[in-house]
Design brief:
The protein is 30% helix and 21% strand. By secondary structure, the protein is an alpha/beta fold. It has a single domain, classed as 3-Layer(aba) Sandwich (Rossmann fold).
Length: 181
């Protein structure tokens, strides 16, 4: 008898803090039950850099640079279901605080007028991803299927979302699992 097919899951952190991933692994021993049903394609846990075709994509963080846009579009192209997890992915979160400041003025203040080791040098290296004019939530760049709010969302919300999706149900998080902080 063949083992049941495992769902492929990919995760990534964009302009965020990895707090959502930390909360995700806080499902503790239930993670072992989950691993029986899923395999990771891409994740900070696997350090794989590209996303192959997957059933579910989980993304934390907003979009602040060209590399974030590239990763997000690759996830949307390859994931049947795409989930924005956390405040940064849903509304830009703390990284979007820079949206109030003109990017040229920000660079001027940080790299030119502030006394630093290399005062006067604005970084200009082709290895650095091109910064966008502001930090964008994921849904302003691609279509998102589900939103998991919170900063970070609680571990139980990840468990409920994933087990509902794996069981073919539309995720329905009750009041206790919905956090908007």
């Amino acid at each position: 008898m063949n083992a049941p097919r495992k769902f492929k899951v990919a995760t990534a952190s964009l302009a965020g803090c990895f707090g959502c991933h930390t909360s995700f692994v806080d499902i503790d021993e239930r993670f072992f039950d989950l691993i029986e049903r899923i395999e990771f394609d891409r994740s900070p846990l696997t350090d794989i850099k590209h996303c192959d075709p997957c059933d579910i994509g989980l993304l934390e963080g907003g979009i602040c640079n060209a590399e974030n846009v590239e990763v997000l579009r690759e996830f949307r192209e390859n994931c049947k279901i795409l989930v924005a997890m956390g405040a940064c992915a849903i509304n830009g979160g703390l990284p979007a605080e820079r949206n109030r400041i003109n990017l040229a003025e920000l660079f001027e203040e940080v790299y030119v007028t502030e006394e630093t080791v290399d005062a006067g040098l604005i970084p200009n290296d082709p290895e650095l991803p091109l910064l966008l004019d502001k930090v964008y939530p994921l849904h302003e760049v691609v279509q998102i299927d589900y939103f998991l709010p919170g900063c970070p969302p609680p571990a139980d919300a990840f468990w409920k979302l994933l087990t509902d999706l794996l069981d073919g149900r539309t995720p329905r998080l009750g009041f206790g699992l919905m956090h908007y902080d």
